[in-house]
């Protein structure tokens, strides 16, 4: 399995963003793919520990707790990830 390089682009948001694709150099919008990460599960677990079991689903709804990957709409290649500051976690 090839190691996947994740690089963060401060221009990228949690929603489709207009960029110049670094791969095919076309101005385009991105497609986003939002994934739960180990950190998402960790924060959910943390919520349970502090007695907020009812809030444990929260990290799954907050994009700042999740990996947001952007793909070029033209060439479909991975172009970067949203810079996650964990401001809500
Ligand atoms: Zn492209």
UniProtKB/TrEMBL annotation:
GO-annotated cellular components: late endosome membrane; lysosomal membrane
**Entry annotated with the keyword Secreted:** no
Which UniProt keywords are present, listed alphabetically? Answer: Membrane, Metal-binding, Transmembrane, Transmembrane helix, Zinc
- Where does the UniProt annotation locate this protein? Endosome membrane; Late endosome membrane; Lysosome membrane
Membrane topology per the entry is: Peripheral membrane protein
The organism's place on the tree of life at top rank? Eukaryota
Name listed for the protein in its UniProt record: CLUMA_CG014357, isoform A
- Mind telling me which SMART domains this protein's record contains? LITAF (SM00714)
Q: Which family does it belong to?
A: Belongs to the CDIP1/LITAF family.
State the organism's lineage: Eukaryota, Metazoa, Ecdysozoa, Arthropoda, Hexapoda
Q: Which residue spans traverse the membrane?
A: 42-60
Domain LITAF intervals: 1-84
Q: Which GO terms describe its molecular function?
A: zinc ion binding
InterPro entries in UniProt: LITAF (IPR006629), LITAF_fam (IPR037519)
Which Pfam families does this entry report, sorted A to Z? Answer: zf-LITAF-like (PF10601)
Where would one find the signal peptide in this protein? Answer: none
């Amino acid at each position: 399995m090839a190691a996947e390089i994740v690089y963060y682009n401060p221009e990228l948001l949690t929603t489709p963003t207009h960029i110049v694709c670094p791969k095919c150099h076309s101005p385009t919008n991105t497609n986003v793919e939002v994934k739960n990460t180990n950190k998402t599960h960790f924060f959910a677990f943390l919520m349970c520990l502090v007695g907020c079991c009812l809030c444990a689903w929260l990290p799954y709804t907050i994009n700042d707790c999740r990996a947001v990957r952007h793909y070029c709409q033209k060439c479909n290649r991975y172009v970067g990830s949203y810079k996650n500051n964990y401001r809500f976690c």
